Amino acid sequence: MNLTEVTVKYPRGATIFAACCASIFCVLGVIGNLVTILALTRCPKLRIHATTAFVLSLCISDLIFCLVNLPLTASRYINEAWTFGDALCQLFPVLFYGNVAVSVLNMVAITLNRPLPDKRITKREKDDRRLTKLMAIIFICILLCFLPLMIVNVFDDNDPKYPVLHILASVLTWASSVINPFIYAASNRQYRSAYSKLFRIVKSSVAFSDSKQGSRASKEKIGSVTLKPSGASS
């Protein structure tokens, strides 16, 4: 990516702000999406829903974006130049727009998967409808994240007069890969339950590991105390 050919000069304060946002989003996005993937795959109640497969696909796409695109973006704005060679330069937009395409396709698939109205609605169908509403919220949030960049690129594309607006709009698009886990936790009881179960498993595993280490340390201490008298008598 040869940035020397780009005539737009961004203010240094704006590029530092963009790099900081990309770094923060990278950490939050990796943690949030990874926790969501683990929580959903370990929750049998959610695994039976067809919608969950699309949610997992969305999370994996966002996780790749946070692991690859955001660190490269942060470096690009810090250095104000592309320093990773032509191969990554070509891969970068593929992953960026691929993430957008996966998000849209998942939303379309979830919409097509929506159950038909029925007088005798089962509990599972009610859950599916709640998940469909959740996906609608996510779709609206993604649209709001990308809309400013679309507007700025249309009305201020050639010889941009407001480069700061371009950076702010770009930051909003990056946020689209971070906000989904927070939406899941805030708007759906089943997802909150899945997160809670995962955290309890992690907490119990840590407690078991600590107790095991404590027991081993106490045994070693008892052994050393037992050996002291015999050593003293000799």
UniProtKB/TrEMBL annotation:
Species name: Acanthoscelides obtectus
Residues annotated as domain G-protein coupled receptors family 1 profile: 32-114, 119-184
Subcellular location: Cell membrane
Protein keywords: Cell membrane, G-protein coupled receptor, Membrane, Receptor, Transducer, Transmembrane, Transmembrane helix
Region ranges (Disordered): 209-234
Membrane topology reported for the UniProt record: Multi-pass membrane protein
Name this protein carries in UniProt: G-protein coupled receptors family 1 profile domain-containing protein
SUPFAM superfamilies reported for this sequence: Family A G protein-coupled receptor-like (SSF81321)
InterPro entries, sorted: GPCR_Rhodpsn, GPCR_Rhodpsn_7TM
Gene Ontology cellular component annotations, sorted alphabetically: plasma membrane
Transmembrane domains' residue ranges: 16-41, 53-74, 94-113, 134-155, 167-187
Main localization category: membrane
Family: Belongs to the G-protein coupled receptor 1 family.
Classification via Pfam families: 7tm_1
Gene Ontology MF, one: G protein-coupled receptor activity
